[in-house]
Protein backbone atom coordinates (compact mmCIF):
# COMPACT_ATOMS: atom_id res chain seq x y z
CA UNK A 1 0.00 0.00 0.00
CA UNK A 2 1.31 3.43 -0.98
CA UNK A 3 -0.24 6.24 1.01
CA UNK A 4 0.21 10.00 0.92
CA UNK A 5 -0.75 11.95 4.02
CA UNK A 6 -1.07 15.73 3.89
CA UNK A 7 1.71 16.21 1.32
CA UNK A 8 2.72 19.84 0.89
CA UNK A 9 5.54 21.30 -1.18
CA UNK A 10 6.53 24.95 -1.13
CA UNK A 11 9.35 26.79 -2.90
CA UNK A 12 10.66 30.33 -2.70
CA UNK A 13 10.52 32.30 -5.94
CA UNK A 14 11.23 36.00 -6.25
CA UNK A 15 10.88 36.49 -2.51
CA UNK A 16 7.46 34.84 -2.48
CA UNK A 17 6.36 31.40 -1.29
CA UNK A 18 4.85 29.32 -4.09
CA UNK A 19 2.69 26.36 -3.08
CA UNK A 20 3.20 23.53 -5.56
CA UNK A 21 1.33 20.85 -3.62
CA UNK A 22 -1.41 21.41 -1.00
CA UNK A 23 -2.54 18.76 1.49
CA UNK A 24 -2.43 15.87 -0.99
CA UNK A 25 -3.86 12.60 0.37
CA UNK A 26 -4.40 9.29 -1.42
CA UNK A 27 -4.06 5.51 -1.01
CA UNK A 28 -3.02 3.11 -3.77
CA UNK A 29 -3.14 -0.66 -3.18
CA UNK A 30 -0.62 -3.13 -4.64
CA UNK A 31 -1.31 -4.45 -8.14
CA UNK A 32 -2.91 -1.14 -9.12
CA UNK A 33 -2.61 1.05 -12.24
CA UNK A 34 -3.18 4.75 -11.54
CA UNK A 35 -2.95 7.86 -13.67
CA UNK A 36 -2.13 11.37 -12.49
CA UNK A 37 -3.80 13.85 -14.82
CA UNK A 38 -4.61 17.52 -14.94
CA UNK A 39 -3.92 20.71 -16.90
CA UNK A 40 -0.39 21.99 -17.45
CA UNK A 41 1.27 23.31 -14.31
CA UNK A 42 -1.18 21.61 -11.95
CA UNK A 43 1.50 19.65 -10.05
CA UNK A 44 1.39 16.25 -11.79
CA UNK A 45 5.13 15.80 -12.32
CA UNK A 46 5.89 17.50 -9.01
CA UNK A 47 3.73 14.95 -7.20
CA UNK A 48 5.39 12.05 -9.05
CA UNK A 49 8.88 13.34 -8.17
CA UNK A 50 7.78 13.79 -4.57
CA UNK A 51 6.69 10.14 -4.48
CA UNK A 52 10.03 9.09 -5.95
CA UNK A 53 11.94 11.19 -3.42
CA UNK A 54 13.48 13.40 -6.09
CA UNK A 55 11.73 16.45 -4.64
CA UNK A 56 11.62 16.95 -0.87
CA UNK A 57 8.26 17.79 0.57
CA UNK A 58 7.88 20.58 3.11
CA UNK A 59 5.16 18.82 5.09
CA UNK A 60 3.36 15.49 5.24
CA UNK A 61 4.66 11.96 4.68
CA UNK A 62 4.51 9.08 2.26
CA UNK A 63 3.92 5.63 3.72
CA UNK A 64 4.94 2.44 1.97
CA UNK A 65 3.29 -0.64 3.47
CA UNK A 66 2.94 1.22 6.75
CA UNK A 67 6.53 2.49 6.80
CA UNK A 68 7.02 6.25 7.05
CA UNK A 69 9.52 6.90 4.25
CA UNK A 70 10.62 10.20 5.78
CA UNK A 71 11.27 8.79 9.25
CA UNK A 72 12.11 5.13 8.69
CA UNK A 73 14.17 5.27 5.53
CA UNK A 74 13.40 5.94 1.87
CA UNK A 75 12.71 3.36 -0.83
CA UNK A 76 15.50 0.93 -1.59
CA UNK A 77 16.87 1.48 -5.09
CA UNK A 78 15.40 -1.87 -6.20
CA UNK A 79 11.93 -1.10 -4.83
CA UNK A 80 11.06 1.77 -7.13
CA UNK A 81 11.56 2.40 -10.84
CA UNK A 82 11.31 5.87 -12.35
CA UNK A 83 10.89 6.57 -16.06
CA UNK A 84 11.50 10.29 -16.71
CA UNK A 85 10.43 12.35 -19.70
CA UNK A 86 13.97 12.53 -21.11
CA UNK A 87 15.85 9.66 -22.75
CA UNK A 88 17.91 7.53 -20.38
CA UNK A 89 19.80 5.63 -23.08
CA UNK A 90 22.87 6.45 -25.17
CA UNK A 91 22.12 6.77 -28.89
CA UNK A 92 25.22 4.81 -29.92
CA UNK A 93 24.30 1.69 -27.94
CA UNK A 94 21.91 -1.03 -29.04
CA UNK A 95 18.71 -1.93 -27.23
CA UNK A 96 20.29 -5.12 -25.88
CA UNK A 97 23.39 -3.25 -24.67
CA UNK A 98 21.28 -0.65 -22.85
CA UNK A 99 19.31 -3.31 -20.99
CA UNK A 100 22.47 -5.29 -20.23
CA UNK A 101 24.21 -2.23 -18.80
CA UNK A 102 21.16 -1.46 -16.67
CA UNK A 103 21.16 -5.02 -15.35
CA UNK A 104 24.89 -4.96 -14.60
CA UNK A 105 24.57 -1.66 -12.73
CA UNK A 106 21.48 -2.58 -10.71
CA UNK A 107 21.80 -6.30 -10.01
CA UNK A 108 24.39 -8.91 -9.12
CA UNK A 109 23.22 -11.58 -11.57
CA UNK A 110 25.82 -13.03 -13.95
CA UNK A 111 26.20 -15.62 -16.70
CA UNK A 112 23.11 -17.52 -17.84
CA UNK A 113 21.00 -15.83 -15.18
CA UNK A 114 21.92 -12.42 -16.58
CA UNK A 115 21.12 -13.52 -20.14
CA UNK A 116 17.78 -14.91 -19.00
CA UNK A 117 16.95 -11.65 -17.21
CA UNK A 118 17.75 -9.56 -20.29
CA UNK A 119 15.81 -11.85 -22.63
CA UNK A 120 12.82 -11.88 -20.28
CA UNK A 121 12.68 -8.10 -20.01
CA UNK A 122 13.04 -7.63 -23.77
CA UNK A 123 10.21 -10.09 -24.36
CA UNK A 124 8.01 -8.49 -21.71
CA UNK A 125 8.35 -5.07 -23.33
CA UNK A 126 8.13 -6.29 -26.92
CA UNK A 127 11.70 -5.36 -27.85
CA UNK A 128 13.18 -8.78 -28.58
CA UNK A 129 12.93 -8.35 -32.38
CA UNK A 130 14.86 -5.07 -32.34
CA UNK A 131 17.40 -5.98 -29.66
CA UNK A 132 20.33 -5.27 -32.00
CA UNK A 133 19.01 -1.92 -33.23
CA UNK A 134 20.86 1.26 -32.14
CA UNK A 135 18.87 3.58 -29.89
CA UNK A 136 19.23 6.46 -32.37
CA UNK A 137 17.12 4.49 -34.88
CA UNK A 138 14.24 3.77 -32.50
CA UNK A 139 10.84 5.42 -32.78
CA UNK A 140 9.40 7.40 -29.90
CA UNK A 141 7.29 4.49 -28.73
CA UNK A 142 10.21 2.09 -28.91
CA UNK A 143 12.35 4.43 -26.81
CA UNK A 144 9.62 4.52 -24.14
CA UNK A 145 9.54 0.72 -24.15
CA UNK A 146 13.33 0.67 -23.77
CA UNK A 147 13.12 3.03 -20.80
CA UNK A 148 10.61 0.69 -19.19
CA UNK A 149 12.78 -2.34 -19.94
CA UNK A 150 15.76 -0.74 -18.24
CA UNK A 151 13.66 -0.22 -15.11
CA UNK A 152 12.24 -3.72 -15.06
CA UNK A 153 15.63 -5.43 -14.69
CA UNK A 154 15.42 -4.84 -10.93
CA UNK A 155 11.74 -5.95 -10.67
CA UNK A 156 10.59 -2.76 -8.90
CA UNK A 157 7.59 -2.85 -6.56
CA UNK A 158 6.53 0.63 -7.74
CA UNK A 159 6.92 1.92 -11.29
CA UNK A 160 6.62 5.70 -11.74
CA UNK A 161 6.25 7.01 -15.29
CA UNK A 162 6.41 10.68 -16.22
CA UNK A 163 4.63 11.56 -19.48
CA UNK A 164 5.77 8.36 -21.21
CA UNK A 165 3.00 8.74 -23.80
CA UNK A 166 3.62 12.40 -24.67
CA UNK A 167 4.38 13.07 -28.32
CA UNK A 168 3.30 9.61 -29.46
CA UNK A 169 0.79 8.79 -32.16
CA UNK A 170 -2.54 7.34 -30.92
CA UNK A 171 -1.57 3.73 -31.72
CA UNK A 172 1.77 3.98 -29.90
CA UNK A 173 0.09 5.66 -26.95
CA UNK A 174 -2.45 2.84 -26.77
CA UNK A 175 0.33 0.22 -26.87
CA UNK A 176 2.33 1.89 -24.10
CA UNK A 177 -0.70 2.27 -21.81
CA UNK A 178 -1.64 -1.37 -22.42
CA UNK A 179 1.93 -2.40 -21.55
CA UNK A 180 1.80 -0.43 -18.31
CA UNK A 181 -1.57 -2.01 -17.55
CA UNK A 182 -0.06 -5.51 -17.97
CA UNK A 183 2.95 -4.59 -15.82
CA UNK A 184 0.63 -3.55 -12.97
CA UNK A 185 -0.88 -7.05 -12.97
CA UNK A 186 2.45 -8.75 -12.26
CA UNK A 187 4.14 -9.23 -8.91
CA UNK A 188 1.65 -6.91 -7.17
CA UNK A 189 3.36 -3.93 -8.79
CA UNK A 190 1.96 -0.42 -8.43
CA UNK A 191 2.22 1.56 -11.66
CA UNK A 192 1.59 5.31 -11.55
CA UNK A 193 1.68 7.23 -14.82
CA UNK A 194 1.59 11.00 -15.28
CA UNK A 195 -0.29 11.77 -18.46
CA UNK A 196 -2.11 14.67 -20.07
CA UNK A 197 -4.46 12.70 -22.29
CA UNK A 198 -7.53 10.87 -21.07
CA UNK A 199 -8.32 8.84 -24.19
CA UNK A 200 -7.11 5.63 -22.48
CA UNK A 201 -8.81 6.32 -19.14
CA UNK A 202 -10.69 3.00 -19.18
CA UNK A 203 -7.41 1.08 -18.82
CA UNK A 204 -6.57 2.73 -15.48
CA UNK A 205 -7.80 1.35 -12.18
CA UNK A 206 -8.04 4.86 -10.79
CA UNK A 207 -7.47 8.45 -11.84
CA UNK A 208 -5.86 11.17 -9.69
CA UNK A 209 -6.88 14.61 -10.95
CA UNK A 210 -4.63 17.48 -9.89
CA UNK A 211 -5.70 21.11 -10.16
CA UNK A 212 -3.61 24.05 -8.98
CA UNK A 213 -1.55 21.83 -6.69
CA UNK A 214 -4.67 20.38 -5.05
CA UNK A 215 -5.98 16.85 -5.42
CA UNK A 216 -9.40 17.39 -7.01
CA UNK A 217 -10.38 13.74 -7.46
CA UNK A 218 -9.14 10.21 -6.93
CA UNK A 219 -11.43 7.42 -7.90
CA UNK A 220 -12.55 5.06 -10.64
CA UNK A 221 -12.25 6.30 -14.21
CA UNK A 222 -15.81 5.27 -15.01
CA UNK A 223 -17.49 7.63 -12.55
CA UNK A 224 -15.12 10.57 -13.05
CA UNK A 225 -17.37 12.31 -15.65
CA UNK A 226 -20.31 12.09 -13.24
CA UNK A 227 -18.27 13.58 -10.41
CA UNK A 228 -17.24 16.57 -12.57
CA UNK A 229 -20.66 16.82 -14.28
CA UNK A 230 -18.92 16.34 -17.62
CA UNK A 231 -20.50 14.62 -20.65
CA UNK A 232 -17.38 12.48 -21.16
CA UNK A 233 -13.96 11.80 -19.68
CA UNK A 234 -12.28 14.06 -22.24
CA UNK A 235 -14.47 16.99 -21.09
CA UNK A 236 -13.23 16.87 -17.48
CA UNK A 237 -10.48 19.46 -18.10
CA UNK A 238 -13.08 21.91 -19.36
CA UNK A 239 -14.96 21.59 -16.06
CA UNK A 240 -12.00 22.31 -13.79
CA UNK A 241 -11.97 26.13 -14.29
CA UNK A 242 -15.62 26.28 -13.22
CA UNK A 243 -14.58 26.10 -9.56
CA UNK A 244 -11.58 27.16 -7.53
CA UNK A 245 -8.97 24.40 -6.89
CA UNK A 246 -9.65 24.64 -3.15
CA UNK A 247 -13.36 24.00 -3.70
CA UNK A 248 -12.73 20.97 -5.91
CA UNK A 249 -10.42 19.66 -3.20
CA UNK A 250 -13.00 20.22 -0.47
CA UNK A 251 -15.64 18.51 -2.59
CA UNK A 252 -13.46 15.44 -3.08
CA UNK A 253 -12.74 15.22 0.66
CA UNK A 254 -16.46 15.11 1.33
CA UNK A 255 -16.91 12.24 -1.18
CA UNK A 256 -13.63 10.46 -0.51
CA UNK A 257 -15.01 7.61 1.61
CA UNK A 258 -17.64 6.80 -1.00
CA UNK A 259 -15.20 6.68 -3.91
CA UNK A 260 -12.56 4.76 -1.98
CA UNK A 261 -15.13 2.13 -1.00
CA UNK A 262 -15.93 1.76 -4.68
CA UNK A 263 -12.24 1.54 -5.57
CA UNK A 264 -11.72 -1.17 -2.97
CA UNK A 265 -14.63 -3.22 -4.32
CA UNK A 266 -13.44 -2.85 -7.90
CA UNK A 267 -9.95 -3.91 -6.81
CA UNK A 268 -11.31 -7.13 -5.26
CA UNK A 269 -13.57 -7.83 -8.27
CA UNK A 270 -10.68 -7.30 -10.68
CA UNK A 271 -8.55 -10.00 -9.12
CA UNK A 272 -11.52 -12.30 -8.69
CA UNK A 273 -12.01 -12.19 -12.45
CA UNK A 274 -8.32 -12.96 -12.91
CA UNK A 275 -8.76 -16.01 -10.69
CA UNK A 276 -6.09 -14.94 -8.19
CA UNK A 277 -6.26 -13.31 -4.76
CA UNK A 278 -5.42 -9.60 -4.49
CA UNK A 279 -1.74 -8.91 -3.74
CA UNK A 280 -0.99 -8.54 -0.02
CA UNK A 281 -0.53 -5.03 1.30
CA UNK A 282 2.69 -6.05 3.05
CA UNK A 283 5.94 -5.59 1.12
CA UNK A 284 7.61 -8.48 -0.61
CA UNK A 285 10.39 -10.29 1.18
CA UNK A 286 13.67 -8.40 1.16
CA UNK A 287 15.22 -11.31 -0.72
CA UNK A 288 13.03 -10.30 -3.68
CA UNK A 289 14.50 -6.81 -3.79
CA UNK A 290 17.30 -6.66 -6.34
CA UNK A 291 20.65 -6.38 -4.61
CA UNK A 292 22.63 -3.45 -6.07
CA UNK A 293 25.81 -4.22 -7.98
CA UNK A 294 29.15 -3.82 -6.22
CA UNK A 295 31.28 -0.71 -6.60
CA UNK A 296 33.79 -2.60 -8.75
CA UNK A 297 31.13 -4.06 -11.03
CA UNK A 298 29.55 -0.65 -11.53
CA UNK A 299 32.93 0.92 -12.25
CA UNK A 300 33.89 -1.71 -14.83
CA UNK A 301 30.45 -1.58 -16.46
CA UNK A 302 30.61 2.19 -16.85
CA UNK A 303 34.22 2.04 -18.06
CA UNK A 304 33.43 -0.53 -20.72
CA UNK A 305 30.42 1.48 -21.81
CA UNK A 306 32.50 4.65 -22.04
CA UNK A 307 35.03 3.06 -24.39
CA UNK A 308 32.20 1.58 -26.45
CA UNK A 309 30.70 5.05 -26.83
CA UNK A 310 34.09 6.48 -27.85
CA UNK A 311 34.58 3.97 -30.65
CA UNK A 312 30.94 4.22 -31.78
CA UNK A 313 30.92 8.03 -31.91
CA UNK A 314 32.94 8.63 -35.06
CA UNK A 315 33.03 12.41 -34.76
CA UNK A 316 34.49 12.27 -31.24
CA UNK A 317 36.90 9.50 -32.18
CA UNK A 318 38.12 11.40 -35.24
CA UNK A 319 38.58 14.54 -33.13
CA UNK A 320 40.68 12.62 -30.61
CA UNK A 321 42.80 11.04 -33.34
CA UNK A 322 43.19 14.36 -35.14
CA UNK A 323 44.45 16.11 -32.00
CA UNK A 324 46.85 13.28 -31.17
CA UNK A 325 48.28 13.34 -34.71
CA UNK A 326 48.13 17.01 -35.66
CA UNK A 327 49.16 18.75 -32.43
CA UNK A 328 52.64 17.13 -32.29
CA UNK A 329 53.11 17.98 -35.96
CA UNK A 330 52.39 21.63 -35.19
CA UNK A 331 55.12 21.57 -32.54
CA UNK A 332 57.50 19.73 -34.88
CA UNK A 333 57.19 22.53 -37.43
CA UNK A 334 59.45 24.51 -35.11
CA UNK A 335 61.90 21.62 -34.71
CA UNK A 336 64.68 23.50 -36.51
CA UNK A 337 64.62 26.17 -33.84
CA UNK A 338 66.66 26.07 -30.68
CA UNK A 339 69.30 23.62 -31.85
CA UNK A 340 72.08 26.10 -32.62
CA UNK A 341 75.36 25.52 -30.80
CA UNK A 342 75.82 27.97 -27.95
CA UNK A 343 79.13 29.80 -28.04
CA UNK A 344 81.38 30.00 -24.97
CA UNK A 345 83.53 33.02 -24.23
CA UNK A 346 87.08 32.77 -22.97
CA UNK A 347 87.81 33.77 -19.38
CA UNK A 348 89.77 36.85 -20.38
CA UNK A 349 89.66 39.29 -23.20
CA UNK A 350 92.20 38.79 -25.96
CA UNK A 351 94.22 41.43 -27.79
CA UNK A 352 91.67 41.68 -30.55
CA UNK A 353 88.97 43.59 -28.77
CA UNK A 354 86.82 43.95 -31.87
CA UNK A 355 86.81 40.17 -32.39
CA UNK A 356 85.80 39.59 -28.79
CA UNK A 357 82.98 42.14 -29.09
CA UNK A 358 81.81 40.47 -32.28
CA UNK A 359 81.92 37.05 -30.58
CA UNK A 360 79.99 38.42 -27.61
CA UNK A 361 77.38 39.85 -29.94
CA UNK A 362 77.08 36.57 -31.84
CA UNK A 363 76.76 34.65 -28.61
CA UNK A 364 74.00 36.98 -27.37
CA UNK A 365 72.09 36.58 -30.62
CA UNK A 366 72.37 32.79 -30.59
CA UNK A 367 71.51 32.61 -26.91
CA UNK A 368 68.43 34.76 -27.41
CA UNK A 369 67.39 32.69 -30.40
CA UNK A 370 67.90 29.39 -28.60
CA UNK A 371 66.30 30.59 -25.36
CA UNK A 372 63.26 31.95 -27.14
CA UNK A 373 62.82 28.80 -29.24
CA UNK A 374 63.27 26.34 -26.38
CA UNK A 375 60.95 28.25 -24.05
CA UNK A 376 58.34 28.70 -26.76
CA UNK A 377 58.35 25.08 -27.90
CA UNK A 378 57.98 23.79 -24.34
CA UNK A 379 55.12 26.20 -23.65
CA UNK A 380 53.51 25.31 -26.99
CA UNK A 381 53.47 21.65 -25.98
CA UNK A 382 52.05 22.49 -22.57
CA UNK A 383 49.25 24.65 -24.01
CA UNK A 384 48.31 22.07 -26.65
CA UNK A 385 48.16 19.34 -24.02
CA UNK A 386 46.05 21.64 -21.86
CA UNK A 387 43.68 22.04 -24.82
CA UNK A 388 43.56 18.24 -25.15
CA UNK A 389 42.78 17.93 -21.46
CA UNK A 390 39.98 20.45 -21.77
CA UNK A 391 38.50 18.55 -24.71
CA UNK A 392 38.83 15.27 -22.79
CA UNK A 393 36.83 16.34 -19.78
CA UNK A 394 34.71 19.43 -20.47
CA UNK A 395 31.60 17.48 -21.48
CA UNK A 396 32.36 14.24 -19.68
CA UNK A 397 29.87 14.76 -16.85
CA UNK A 398 27.71 17.68 -18.01
CA UNK A 399 27.06 15.95 -21.35
CA UNK A 400 25.70 12.89 -19.53
CA UNK A 401 24.11 14.68 -16.58
CA UNK A 402 20.53 13.46 -16.95
CA UNK A 403 21.53 9.85 -17.52
CA UNK A 404 23.87 10.08 -14.53
CA UNK A 405 21.05 11.41 -12.33
CA UNK A 406 18.77 8.59 -13.46
CA UNK A 407 21.42 5.94 -12.77
CA UNK A 408 22.15 7.42 -9.34
CA UNK A 409 18.44 7.19 -8.58
CA UNK A 410 18.52 3.53 -9.63
CA UNK A 411 21.40 2.76 -7.25
CA UNK A 412 24.53 3.58 -9.23
CA UNK A 413 27.33 4.94 -7.06
CA UNK A 414 28.59 8.45 -7.88
CA UNK A 415 32.04 7.22 -6.85
CA UNK A 416 31.84 4.36 -9.35
CA UNK A 417 30.88 6.77 -12.11
CA UNK A 418 33.77 9.07 -11.24
CA UNK A 419 36.21 6.16 -10.96
CA UNK A 420 35.28 4.96 -14.44
CA UNK A 421 35.85 8.44 -15.82
CA UNK A 422 39.19 8.82 -14.02
CA UNK A 423 40.46 5.56 -15.50
CA UNK A 424 39.21 6.47 -18.98
CA UNK A 425 40.66 9.98 -18.88
CA UNK A 426 43.96 8.77 -17.40
CA UNK A 427 44.46 6.48 -20.39
CA UNK A 428 43.72 9.36 -22.75
CA UNK A 429 46.16 11.59 -20.88
CA UNK A 430 48.94 8.99 -21.10
CA UNK A 431 48.41 8.29 -24.80
CA UNK A 432 48.25 11.98 -25.71
CA UNK A 433 51.20 13.05 -23.56
CA UNK A 434 53.54 10.17 -24.38
CA UNK A 435 52.86 10.48 -28.10
CA UNK A 436 53.40 14.26 -27.99
CA UNK A 437 56.69 13.69 -26.18
CA UNK A 438 57.91 10.86 -28.43
CA UNK A 439 57.06 12.56 -31.72
CA UNK A 440 58.48 15.94 -30.76
CA UNK A 441 61.54 14.32 -29.15
CA UNK A 442 62.28 12.56 -32.42
CA UNK A 443 62.00 15.82 -34.41
CA UNK A 444 63.43 18.12 -31.74
CA UNK A 445 65.57 16.35 -29.12
CA UNK A 446 65.30 18.19 -25.82
CA UNK A 447 68.64 19.48 -24.70
CA UNK A 448 68.44 18.17 -21.18
CA UNK A 449 66.54 15.66 -19.05
CA UNK A 450 63.93 14.20 -21.41
CA UNK A 451 62.18 12.14 -18.72
CA UNK A 452 61.67 15.22 -16.59
CA UNK A 453 60.12 16.91 -19.60
CA UNK A 454 57.82 13.93 -20.17
CA UNK A 455 56.74 14.03 -16.53
CA UNK A 456 55.63 17.64 -16.81
CA UNK A 457 53.83 17.05 -20.12
CA UNK A 458 51.80 14.32 -18.42
CA UNK A 459 51.15 16.52 -15.38
CA UNK A 460 50.12 19.47 -17.54
CA UNK A 461 47.55 17.35 -19.38
CA UNK A 462 46.38 15.61 -16.21
CA UNK A 463 45.95 18.87 -14.29
CA UNK A 464 43.85 20.50 -17.00
CA UNK A 465 41.83 17.30 -17.46
CA UNK A 466 41.09 17.05 -13.72
CA UNK A 467 40.14 20.71 -13.35
CA UNK A 468 37.87 20.61 -16.42
CA UNK A 469 36.29 17.41 -15.13
CA UNK A 470 35.52 19.30 -11.92
CA UNK A 471 34.01 22.14 -13.95
CA UNK A 472 31.95 19.68 -16.00
CA UNK A 473 30.63 17.96 -12.88
CA UNK A 474 29.31 21.26 -11.50
CA UNK A 475 27.68 22.64 -14.64
CA UNK A 476 24.11 21.96 -15.67
CA UNK A 477 24.72 21.93 -19.42
CA UNK A 478 27.60 20.72 -21.62
CA UNK A 479 27.62 24.08 -23.39
CA UNK A 480 28.26 25.89 -20.12
CA UNK A 481 31.02 23.46 -19.16
CA UNK A 482 32.70 23.71 -22.59
CA UNK A 483 32.65 27.49 -22.51
CA UNK A 484 34.20 27.71 -19.05
CA UNK A 485 36.87 25.16 -20.00
CA UNK A 486 37.76 27.06 -23.16
CA UNK A 487 38.12 30.26 -21.16
CA UNK A 488 40.36 28.44 -18.70
CA UNK A 489 42.67 27.23 -21.47
CA UNK A 490 42.61 30.62 -23.19
CA UNK A 491 43.92 32.39 -20.10
CA UNK A 492 46.76 29.92 -19.58
CA UNK A 493 49.24 31.48 -22.02
CA UNK A 494 48.88 35.20 -21.19
CA UNK A 495 48.79 34.54 -17.42
CA UNK A 496 51.70 32.09 -17.42
CA UNK A 497 54.29 34.84 -17.88
CA UNK A 498 55.93 32.98 -20.76
CA UNK A 499 55.25 35.78 -23.24
CA UNK A 500 55.18 38.88 -21.04
CA UNK A 501 55.98 39.08 -17.35
CA UNK A 502 52.98 40.10 -15.26
CA UNK A 503 53.13 42.80 -12.57
CA UNK A 504 54.16 41.23 -9.27
CA UNK A 505 50.84 41.98 -7.56
CA UNK A 506 48.86 40.22 -10.30
CA UNK A 507 51.37 37.39 -10.69
CA UNK A 508 51.19 36.45 -7.00
CA UNK A 509 47.42 36.12 -7.28
CA UNK A 510 47.08 34.32 -10.63
CA UNK A 511 50.20 32.13 -10.76
CA UNK A 512 49.04 29.42 -8.31
CA UNK A 513 46.05 28.69 -10.56
CA UNK A 514 47.89 28.55 -13.91
CA UNK A 515 48.90 24.94 -14.56
CA UNK A 516 50.70 25.95 -17.77
CA UNK A 517 53.17 28.03 -15.76
CA UNK A 518 54.05 25.18 -13.42
CA UNK A 519 54.45 22.61 -16.20
CA UNK A 520 56.54 25.02 -18.28
CA UNK A 521 58.56 26.16 -15.28
CA UNK A 522 59.21 22.62 -14.05
CA UNK A 523 60.24 21.38 -17.49
CA UNK A 524 62.62 24.32 -17.97
CA UNK A 525 64.10 24.45 -14.48
CA UNK A 526 64.54 20.72 -13.97
CA UNK A 527 64.93 19.48 -17.52
CA UNK A 528 67.31 21.73 -19.49
CA UNK A 529 71.08 21.57 -19.41
CA UNK A 530 72.83 24.50 -17.79
CA UNK A 531 73.79 26.41 -20.93
CA UNK A 532 70.33 26.15 -22.48
CA UNK A 533 68.78 27.16 -19.15
CA UNK A 534 70.97 30.27 -19.15
CA UNK A 535 69.77 31.03 -22.65
CA UNK A 536 66.13 30.75 -21.58
CA UNK A 537 66.74 32.91 -18.51
CA UNK A 538 68.32 35.56 -20.70
CA UNK A 539 65.09 36.23 -22.57
CA UNK A 540 62.36 35.34 -20.04
CA UNK A 541 61.56 37.85 -17.31
CA UNK A 542 59.36 35.50 -15.28
CA UNK A 543 61.17 33.66 -12.52
CA UNK A 544 61.15 29.86 -12.55
CA UNK A 545 60.24 27.64 -9.61
CA UNK A 546 62.01 24.46 -8.62
CA UNK A 547 60.82 21.29 -10.34
CA UNK A 548 59.83 19.73 -7.02
CA UNK A 549 57.56 22.64 -6.19
CA UNK A 550 56.07 22.45 -9.69
CA UNK A 551 55.26 18.76 -9.25
CA UNK A 552 53.63 19.55 -5.90
CA UNK A 553 51.46 22.38 -7.28
CA UNK A 554 50.36 20.38 -10.33
CA UNK A 555 49.53 17.49 -8.02
CA UNK A 556 47.38 19.86 -5.96
CA UNK A 557 45.62 20.97 -9.16
CA UNK A 558 44.82 17.34 -9.99
CA UNK A 559 43.57 16.55 -6.49
CA UNK A 560 41.50 19.76 -6.32
CA UNK A 561 39.93 18.99 -9.71
CA UNK A 562 39.01 15.46 -8.64
CA UNK A 563 37.55 16.66 -5.34
CA UNK A 564 35.49 19.24 -7.23
CA UNK A 565 34.37 16.49 -9.62
CA UNK A 566 33.34 14.21 -6.76
CA UNK A 567 31.32 16.98 -5.13
CA UNK A 568 29.67 17.67 -8.49
CA UNK A 569 28.68 14.09 -9.31
CA UNK A 570 27.13 13.72 -5.86
CA UNK A 571 24.99 16.81 -6.33
CA UNK A 572 21.51 16.51 -7.81
CA UNK A 573 20.78 18.26 -11.10
CA UNK A 574 17.30 17.00 -12.02
CA UNK A 575 15.39 19.16 -14.48
Explain what you see.
- A six-stranded mixed β-sheet has the order 6-7-8-3-9-10, sandwiched between helices. Strands 2-1-4-5 form a four-stranded antiparallel β-sheet, with helices on one face.
- It is 54% helix and 11% strand.
- By secondary structure, the protein is of the alpha/beta class.
- Mean pLDDT is 89; it is low at 343-349.
- Helix 10 (314-332) packs parallel to helix 13 (414-443) and helix 11 (353-393) runs antiparallel to helix 13 (414-443).
- It is elongated, with a radius of gyration of 32 Å.
- The longest helix is centred in the middle third of the chain and has 41 residues, at 353-393.
- A hairpin with a 2-residue loop joins strand 1 (2-13) and strand 2 (16-28).
- The protein is built from 20 helices and ten strands.
What amount of the residues lies in strands?
A: 5-15%
How large is the count of helical segments? 20
In the predicted model, the low-confidence regions spanning at least 5 consecutive residues are 343-349
* General shape: elongated
Instruction: Give the ordered list of helices and strands.
Output: EEEHEEEHHHEHEEEHHHHHHHHHHHHHHH
Helix content: 40-55%
Q: What do the pLDDT scores average to? A: 89
The radius of gyration over CA amounts to 32 Å
Give the neighbour order of strands across the main sheet. Answer: 6-7-8-3-9-10
Q: Structural class of the secondary elements?
A: alpha/beta
Alpha carbon gap, first and last residue: 29 Å
Please outline the major beta sheet: 6 strands, mixed
Count of extended strands:
10
